[in-house]
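With this grant's support, we have settled on a layout for protein records. One resulting record is reproduced below.
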Amino acid sequence: MRLLVLTWLACCVLTGVASAQQLQLPTGNHSLFDQPSAFFQFVDRDFEGEKSTPWEGGQFGFVRDPRRIGRSIAYARFHEGLDIKPLQRDARGNPQDEVGAIADGVVVYAAAASNLSNYGRYVVLRHDLGGSPFFSLYAHLSSAQVSAGQRVKAGAPLGILGYTGSGIDQRRAHVHVELNMFLSSRFEAWHAANFNTPNHHGVFNGLNLIGLDLQALYLSQQKNPGLTAVQAVRSTESGYRVAVPGDADMEIVKNYPWLIDGPRPSGRPASWEVTFSRWGLPLAVKASNTSVSQPVVTWIKDSGIPHYTFTRGCVTGSGSTGRLTVEGLRFVKLACGWF
């Protein structure tokens, strides 16, 4: 599988910059733009003794697991996609909405079983957006009607919205949609070195895909249809920076050369300084003359709350200082190819 992945990733990079493609919504529910409460599926919440079902928990971002910190409430759990409500149900309450491709692309993965991932039954498509490979993911499907290698047009049916996967019941049926960057074609080796559990999904395991803010991209494209996924990544707010030894593989730079900030080094640099969003999306990579023996945090945005809360547990500390946690080091190794 790795050879196939490298081949099509290389093809994506060599195609050059393509024209912008406005993304379509994956179902007939278009309320995102005028009535988000009718678009996002709610979550069940029990906070400080009060039970509620806020639709806001279906949005992209740090929208789940509220915690009181001083006089403020922070949301510690990150949600990497959009949970979209069904519009149609049969007499038994099962959703009937068709889920379609958000852009022209190729099916690269279709999970054969619904019980081997929190995503349930899911499908992954590769899109060439702005000359770079991006991957949309559609989860919790009750059924899928595509297979790997199949080319699809925007809007082409992929399956039926459902509630497969853990933690979802019929009343909360939805399709979970992401738009991602790809981290490493060596993911399976990384997974084997870090987990005792089997990897059932190859390089299209959700851990190997890191989502951009699809919600913001949809809303921005309403005002500016020419906005690209690449521009959306570049405009994302920086969360922290990490210096990584210069011998890191840096596959993300090969796949997304526009991440390079400043001149590209002719040889191996002493280190690479990688800027990530709060949730770990790579935003920029810069060669550095400073040597490091292992990944180390060089800068972090002070949000006024403990870093662990707003970095998906990757960075600990507070204020202007931080250090990678065990989970953070593991993630950076994958993202930068230092393993």
In short: The chain has seven helices and 20 strands. The CA atoms of residues 79 and 127 lie 22 Å apart. The helical segments are 2-14, 187-194, 214-223, 229-234, 251-255, 307-310, 326-336.
